Amino acid sequence: MSPQPLSIIGAGLGGVTLGRALLERGIPVVLYERATSAPRHGYGISLHASTYKPLLKMLNMDEQTFKQRVAVDAAVGGTGAIDPKRLIRPREATSTSFRAHRERLEKLIRQGLDIKWEHGLEKLEQTHNGTSLYMQNDNTIEGQTCIVGSDGVHSLTRKSILREAGLDVLPFVTFNGKRKVSRSTFDSVYSPALRGSNVIESHNNGAFLQVSVNDITEDQASVSWVYSRPAKGSSDRCFKPNRLLSDATQIPKEFYQEVAALTDLPQPFSEIFDVEKMKQDRILTWLMRTSKVDLPQLYQLASNGIFLMGDSAHSQPILGGEGANIAIFDGLTLAEAIAAQNGETITAWYSKHFPTWQQSLETSKATIEEMHKAEAPKSKV
């Protein structure tokens, strides 16, 4: 009789990395993902050598081939290069880091995996026969003996079991937008300013500004921008820490007024932060959410065959964090612990990595503070 597949909630970077790593070890897995199989993460993320080199080993792929598959500018022969000197606070970024297209990366990693799309988790219930998964499509999967929650910062896996584990919102106003431009515009305006880097940052009028490349094709380019600043208290019309998830697309007019007040912007910032052009972009308000589950809670869950990883266990803020790299690292290392088939090994995995998670979270908070300091050095443009 074949072993029961391990259930992974969430098919993001952490989930697919864990699933692929277990599959490579001959351990069957099924991933349950609330989204459809349509492309959903068409943006760039920064990967560091300490993350992608172990990933290459699992994928049995050399670095050149890997970058040709996933680099944001791979279609035009690029390698996703990042120049740390163009960043306000590089943190882990070095000359060996690069920008990867997240959707292409996830697609590459999830090859061969059994993913049940449109299977969002509603709740978990633990019974004497194991754990039952109640899905939002009215399906129920009963008698699960091993479940991993990799369903992100708003993890329903975590909420179902640890209802008191909430989220903290850091006091920063952050807006993110995506725009598609013609290749001629990209080549004439963006490329000369980026000077070989796929991400560039600066300060202006008390705000942190970022422009990054998501994708480049023969005909067009996709770019993202970030506008971020410290919140100004309860009277700040741009800071809504208690907003609903569905309100992320509600952009206050005060934001556009702030952008209009930016002065002496060099390229590519002057092109990006043009108010009339921005009104045509897809804009979201980001909240810098963090969470941390206590170590005894993780031990208790593990004793019942439920594990948390990535943002489900230790959410990182979007800016200044290393969420993608940590999710991949969690997936690779948790697979080793699960493959050992020893409860004490899982406990040891938590014991080993929990201090690192705590330190990473504190470092992320400090990084965000540094990124927003007016006296921080501006990137060279």
UniProtKB/TrEMBL annotation:
Cofactor(s) the record lists: FAD
Gene3D superfamilies reported in the protein's UniProt record: FAD/NAD(P)-binding domain
Any Pfam family matching the protein: FAD_binding_3
Keywords: FAD, Flavoprotein, Monooxygenase, Oxidoreductase
Signal peptide: none
InterPro entries listed in its UniProt record: FAD-bd, FAD/NAD-bd_sf
GO terms of molecular function: FAD binding; monooxygenase activity
Pathway(s) of this molecule: Secondary metabolite biosynthesis
Coiled-coil segments on the chain, per record: none
The organism's place on the tree of life at top rank: Eukaryota
Span of domain FAD-binding: 8-341
Keyword Flavoprotein in annotation: yes
Family under the similarity heading: Belongs to the paxM FAD-dependent monooxygenase family.
Protein name as it appears in the record: FAD-binding domain-containing protein
Organism of this sequence: Aureobasidium subglaciale (strain EXF-2481) (Aureobasidium pullulans var. subglaciale)
